[in-house]
Amino acid sequence: MNRRTLLIGSSALGLAAFAGGAFVLNQRRAAEAEAAAAAAPTADQALLVREYSPSFGPADAPVTLVEFFDPSCEACRAYHPVVQEIRRQFPTQVRVVLRYTVFHEGSDEAVRILEAARMQDKFEPVLDALLEQQPGWAVHGAPQMDVAWEIAGAAGLDLERAESDKLFPGITGILNQDAADVEALAIRQTPTFFLNGKRLENFSADSLIADVRFAVENS
């Protein structure tokens, strides 16, 4: 056996070991997801999803991921691409529902921007723009909401129409109902995720995707 054969053999063994390690890791994540799902209590569905809640994906999808998020929250901004990746990987199997959790100053007005955008069928581009450019407006203690409006306008929102739409009483009703549900569910931080009615604890970007995949594969 020459040196080249030895090197090729060593590489093959290394790849096999890596593949085996990945398989074991996936098995472990699946086992953890199964254990967590079995242990976690199921939340009242009426508190998790309201008829008016913004959502993406089929209404009859077998898996529902509910995110309680604050437009001003840095962690929510960080998890936004993760949720988008979940939507990309499972376009028909997962429904993503968003609930407003206004913990930061200025977040209530950010919700009004988003809801005004929804009235104009501009919700997603405005949401993406506000989160992408969040550091420019969501200054804790001194939010610059005029900047947030400018960002929304650049994303396609008709600002003149939105000036009146943002005062629509229904938006106040959404804010009040979401706040009541946040309190009833004891939401204390954002983002908080519920997967098929069960709260996810100690999650990461990788584990969130793994948990959703497990739910899809076992739905």
From TrEMBL:
Coiled-coil stretches: none
Signal peptide (residue range): 1-19
Keywords: Signal
Source domain of life: Bacteria
Short name of one Pfam family: Thioredoxin_4
Domain Thioredoxin: 29-217
Source organism of the structure: Pannonibacter anstelovis
Role description: May be required for disulfide bond formation in some proteins.
Organism placement in taxonomy: Bacteria, Pseudomonadati, Pseudomonadota, Alphaproteobacteria, Hyphomicrobiales
SUPFAM superfamilies, sorted: Thioredoxin-like
InterPro entries recorded: TAT_signal, Thioredoxin-like_fold, Thioredoxin-like_sf, Thioredoxin_domain
Protein name per UniProt: Thioredoxin domain-containing protein
